[in-house]
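Apologies for my clumsy wording, but are you able to produce some protein sequence, whichever is easiest, and the tokens describing how it folds?
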Amino acid sequence: MVLRLLALLFASAALLMGLALGWGWPLGATISRVNPTAIPTLQNLLSGVLWQQAWNALATPMLDSPAWLAPAMIALILFGVAAMRPGKG
């Protein structure tokens, strides 16, 4: 029940982000709008802990994806986990 509720909240957030920002608005622009120092800090952290290719291979495509896609993917994962736990999700 709790997982399904969380999934519905993330799905609602994805829908609201898509409607409010536009369906093509990138995630990186949304994060930069909220916190301008977050992306450079994350880039320095990933580059220092892992390597520069991790930023290019993982983070850059994610930041170029639409902003509504991140909460939608979390909602799908939570719905999937809740479906595998019948009666407990």
About this structure: The chain has one domain: 2-84. The chain has a mean pLDDT of 89. The two ends are 5 Å apart (CA to CA).
